[in-house]
């Protein structure tokens, strides 16, 4: 009864370390490496049943083993390309069969493109980046919301979309990437306004430089020049922010784009 009262009046679930997502079903896209993998493991450590989505079978199997070892053997991996409507629909049909619902989703999958001036970049690159970074987020949100609406008003639900600090500022040689991340923030804020009354909180996460495979080309000199803290973030630091934003601790956070960048945009 106390738990019901807390939820009804906006108090959320009791915060118990190690059980913040106990018995909740969490979807993480782009879960085979980097931020997605670190987040999937972190959710599992907090009691979640995690559905990992990614394109690479071998890496997905390794990530799933790590999630199982972190504490939830019921978690599953599904191979899917988030830019493909049919594959996304099939992935969420599998999630529905396995769990019957979705409580939390972290739409983390993303891609970048080769550098250059906007007039030098190709139409193929534009289509590919937008398909993954924008359409992919929307396709997943559409399926996630359908699996949240029935219970969100009473139990609460949360969606977190991956953007970037370059969704809040320009970056000269990666215009398509920046445009796609700006679009994610617009999509997030608009959806947040529509679904908040249904009990679904929707927010965006905007990291700066993070130590992943995608930033292997970023030198120490670039980091020191651009990041006041003088270092990149570790994927686990971004995962910690993602968990907080999706938890009942952040139940008043709606339509927000959280910057996590070591001071980069503060300059």
Characterise this structure.
The structure is a single chain. By secondary structure, the chain is α/β, with parallel strands linked by helices. The protein contains 9 helices and 7 strands. The chain has helices at residues 2-8, 34-45, 57-70, 85-99, 123-146, 149-155, 175-195, 220-226, 235-246; strands at 25-29, 49-54, 76-79, 104-107, 157-162, 200-207, 257-260. It has a 7-stranded parallel beta sheet with strand order 3-2-1-4-5-6-7, with helices on both faces. Strand 5 (157-162), helix 7 and strand 6 form a beta-alpha-beta unit. The longest helix is centred in the middle third of the chain and has 24 residues, at 123-146. The chain is globular. The N and C termini lie far apart (49 Å). Residues 4-10 have low confidence and may be disordered.
| Classification by helices and strands | alpha/beta
**Total helical elements:** 9
Number of strand elements = 7
**Rounded mean pLDDT score:** 93
Order of helices and strands: HEHEHEHEHHEHEHHE
Quaternary status of these chains? single chain
Distance between the amino and carboxyl termini: 49 Å
Large-scale geometry: globular
Percent of residues in helical segments? Answer: 40-55%
């Amino acid at each position: 009864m106390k738990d019901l009262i807390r939820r009804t009046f906006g108090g959320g679930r009791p915060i118990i370390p190690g059980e913040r997502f106990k018995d909740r079903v969490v979807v993480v896209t782009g879960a085979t490496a980097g931020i997605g993998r670190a987040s999937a493991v972190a959710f599992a450590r907090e009691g979640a049943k995690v559905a990992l989505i990614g394109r690479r079978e071998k890496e997905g199997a390794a990530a799933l083993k790590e999630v199982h070892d972190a504490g939830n053997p019921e978690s599953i991996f599904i191979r899917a390309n988030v830019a493909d409507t049919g594959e996304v629909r099939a992935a969420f049909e599998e999630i529905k069969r396995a769990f019957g619902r979705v409580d939390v989703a972290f739409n983390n999958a993303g891609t970048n493109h080769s550098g250059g001036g906007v007039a030098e970049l190709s139409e193929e690159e534009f289509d590919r980046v937008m398909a993954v970074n924008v359409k992919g987020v929307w396709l997943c949100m559409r399926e996630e919301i359908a699996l949240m609406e029935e219970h969100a008003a009473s139990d609460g639900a949360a969606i977190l979309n991956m953007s970037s600090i370059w969704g809040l500022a320009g970056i000269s040689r990666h215009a398509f990437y920046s445009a796609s991340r700006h679009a994610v923030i617009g999509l997030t804020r608009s959806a947040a306004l529509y679904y908040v009354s249904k009990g679904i909180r929707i927010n965006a996460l905007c990291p700066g430089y993070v130590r992943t495979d995608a930033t292997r080309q970023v030198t120490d000199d670039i980091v020191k020049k651009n990041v006041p803290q003088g270092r990149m973030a570790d994927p686990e630091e971004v995962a910690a922010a993602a968990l907080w934003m999706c938890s009942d601790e952040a139940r008043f956070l709606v339509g927000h784009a959280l910057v996590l960048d070591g001071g980069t945009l503060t300059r």
